[in-house]
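ingest -> validate -> predict -> emit
validate: passed (alphabet ok, no gaps, 318 aa)
predict: started
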Amino acid sequence: MSVVLGVDVGGTKVAVGPVDASGAILAPLLQEPSVVSDTESFVDGLVETLRGAIGQFGSFEPKAIGLACAGTVDEARRLVVTSPNLPLRRVPLAESLQASLGLQIVLENDANAALLAEATVGVAAGLRDVILLTLGTGVGGGILINGRLYRGVGGGAGELGHTVVCGGGELCRCGARGCLEMYASGRALARFADERAGSEVEDPDRVLARMSERHRLDGRTVGRLATRGYPGALSAARELAIWLGRGLVSLVNAFNPEMIVIGGGVADLGEILLEPARGYVREKAMSPNKDQVQIVQASLGNSAGMVGAGLVAWEVCG
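emit:
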């Protein structure tokens, strides 16, 4: 059976699976840790992981490999220009892997890949004008216009986390101030909770304070506390939701999409996050845009990038 291998390359792990032309995953995934100490070690480790996957999934006759990678991907030159969590700066990753493995390599930005997956077999299936935001350690984005991924002239389109929502606000790692990433990411959620630590009203049992003192107050922990109804964590989540709403207003007004899909770990807050964000959009965005957009949680979870990478490879090798 002819398939492609979809690969999601992250800062902590690499996930690989066989993907058919419809976007279905045909076998349990292979997962290996990422080696991020330096560029050479990273590429060598990725080659070994992919060789193992080719052997494991060899009965499916993989004809190409689709690779979803965080960062700016120059599609024409098949290189990673820069990546926030990987030691890749102007690295011709597709050519390096293709030379080592003897299979066609198709490279894509991870958020673009996740968006393609959601628009093919996920919550946005059948829609043609869709935006995806991934709320994790940072904030990534992807844009689908008239059924096609919009990558921009140099492959760098979709950096929606660097939409400015607070002029002169928090300093972002990109060098600007007030980016959405600084207000709607997992790090932002932890910061908002830390600001509430010790409050008699929002932290009555000093749970946040104790975690802050032990340096254990991260976005995932705050999210769990919020879903359990803990006051300070809920308040932090609602603050983040309003900042997210501000970013969404700009996207709704600029793109007039049918749907905005919210993914990433922060999206696990579900309606705690989405209901206030939708309300802000209904109040502040322009008509008819605000009446035409759906704002929903992503449905494919951690498999979205891998599935999307496989679908991109199918588009190229058919």
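Residues 231-255 form the longest helix (25 residues).
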